[in-house]
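Standup notes, structure subgroup. Blocker cleared on the glutamic acid input:
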Amino acid sequence: MTVRVRFAPSPTGFMHLGNARTALFNWLFARHHGGEFVLRIEDTDRTRHTEAAVQVIYDTLKWMGLDWDGPVLRQSERIDIYHQVAEKLIAEGKAYRCVCTKEELEAKKAAMKDTAHHACYDGTCRDKNLGPDCGPHVVRFRMPKEGVSMFDDMVQGHIEKNYADLDDFIMVRTDGMPTYQFAVVVDDLALKITHVIRGCDHIDNTHDQIALYKALGAEPPKFGHAPRILGLSKRKGSPSVEYYREAFGLLPQGLNNYIARLGWSHGDDEIFTMDELVKAFDITGVNQANGNFDEDKLKWVNEQQIHITSADVLADHVIPIFASRGVNVEKGEFLNKLLEMMRERAHNLNEIVDQSMFVFKAPESYDEKSVKKNFNADTENLLNEFADKLEASSTWDNDSIDKAIKDVIEPRELKLGKLAQPIRIALVGIAQSPGIHETIWFVGKDECIRRLRAAAKYAASIQAQA
Ligand code: GLU
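Run returned:
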């Protein structure tokens, strides 16, 4: 049997972290078993869903590195198929048309509110055998009324519920659109899904769905319901992948690693590459208890992932962040070198970009505190002289930069910092940067000289004012 799982999001316009984890668990399960991971878009609610929202799903899955197999299934393109299945079930007496109006149903529910089955349809149309010309109607499933519905959940264990507590749920609405409950079974059967892994908010739905499989004479897939992620509040921003990705400067592997471990454990291991996750992931290792979302842990895991990710891969993720800050950066050896240096210092991708900005952009202003502390009457000369030394040198490497520095500080008997800090202010705008040699090298010779001369001028101007 080939393992086939699916991820079936509704296009809401953003990817909730809980949904992202459902996608990840399914993908890991498929890859672990050498099976297939199918993507289905549950887009039957035409009034709510837009193509931009569908694109968010594609973009987020691609960013997370969760590639899907085969074509994407769109429920909105399968309406005729749902109707055919509904007709078949009606013909076999396993479903029926119901003409009860919303108002009638609400009145009945209110009257029954103190009885045990007040939430269930009272069965008014169940045995009326209404035909297609009965007027505006829904199609309901004829739920067996006796016995116990049960299944063994791969995560939650044995689960059961009395059929008497299950509703004759609606399969097709008055407007002809299928409900989630109905379409999900028709599609999972069509896609030959072997395992359904999803959030535990769907546990109750599973009884309805298994009853439908039985009515269709089909074997239900195995189910595994993952626990909830608690503590994701709107107050902190949107609980979406897009929000955390941007606000926390996440590497996809940082997010994947964190959300995989949130609800699944593998001994005390914390940091996993994607290959390690695929190898280790076991659905029976998913916790039953809900997990608490912990921002600090997410930040920590992301940082660990940044440290072990190759500069080449980091480049793919920082280039768009540079672009969003208006700076065009190209992939290549230079950027890789820069990233190798910066990833040791930075906690996330945003910091890498922010702290690397000086390489591509001259400072627009100088930090007041840094200037006050490090500029004096000699600064103009010092910076100009250093610029002269760089200009005179015919090579551009660590040795030539070091020689230029020494040629300025040694005759004056200055400590390195007395020159390095003014240089940092000139090149970065603030007296903070990586090692002075690297800072100079990354800015490049001509640009370095330009910035040194500009800062020398500035130093002169503030001296004149003083
Ligand atoms: N569209 C449903 C959801 O996003 C799918 C649930 C399922 O996997 O069956 O919750």
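Discussed briefly. The two ends are 83 Å apart (CA to CA).
Next: hand off to the docking folks.
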